[in-house]
Amino acid sequence: xxxxxxxxxxxxxxxxxxxxxxxxxxxxxxxxxxxxxxxxxxxxxxxxxxxxxxxxxxxxxxxxxxxxxxxxxxxxxxxxxxxxxxxxxxxxxxxxxxxxxxxxxxxxxxxxxxxxxxxxxxxxxxxxxxxxxxxxxxxxxxxxxxxxxxxxxxxxxxxxxxxxxxxxxxxxxxxxxxxxxxxxxxxxxxxxxxxxxxxxxxxxxxxxxxxxxxxxxxxxxxxxxxxxxxxxxxxxxxxxxxxxxxxxxxxxxxxxxxxxxxxxxxxxxxxxxxxxxxxxxxxxxxxxxxxxxxxxxxxxxxxxxxxxxxxxxxxxxxxxxxxxxxxxxxxxxxxxxxxxxxxxxxxxxxxxxxxxxxxxxxxxx
Length: 365
Prior knowledge:
The chain is mostly beta strands. About 15% of the residues lie in helices and about 50% in strands. It contains three helices and 17 strands. The strands form two sheets. An eight-stranded antiparallel barrel has the order 1-4-5-7-8-9-10-13.
């Protein structure tokens, strides 16, 4: 009893301690099932009759409804059921007669009020796992049925039957982990729990029959068990997390037009070494920028007729285009134009031989 009392006290004191609460709050429901192991019953009555009952691992089922606060605290009401098959029951009478059996079943059921506290591991980079601890008090009923033993002591046949259906104060301690599944179902969590459960007012009644003599002996046995459960908890009103924002569109790189000027001698359309060097630079620029079009525009000065200058400017543009093609620029990417003397770089009077106007403009866009 001292150990159980200490365990309950330590659990209650630890509730408001370390950790940050989970951000969810509101009404929730939960259910779990698993295995349970009951402590062995070993009692001796005042008349010397000794009773020993051990059980196999049993089943536990739990259902609950509760409310979670934003500070991590939870309050819940719980219904539970446990059932164990008897492994061996042994009755030893004062006269030394002993009987044993492996039949019977012990069940417990009842209701509990629990207080729990959730810890957050988000600050440690684990957002979906939340440890929790708790404790509860309530009312539990123990139902013992069909537990019997027979012993042959001399010429007397002794039959013993153990039975009860008695309820009393119950308490428990809880430790568990919840694994958030909100990324699949908003509000859903998987739980894994350990529970220590005990009652303080269990009662067993041993009825012994020896010939025509019937005696009844009452026991107040140790009534405690340990359980491991796997369950689900669903919190109402949890909205799914917002979808991550769409990535910002990558702005298209703006193409900055580059202009290259190729100059010609008077009344000439052939390329100089310097002209070829400039054309080579234009061809290289096409591969280093996102070029979509190359304009090749021929021009002439005003020392001649309009028709002659137009034809001369076209020959100059064709000469530059041919050099660009030789340097790997597809003809399909070029727009070849001739403007004659209509677009002078340097305004001049008619008949003036202005060198700046005898040119081809290469515009890489």
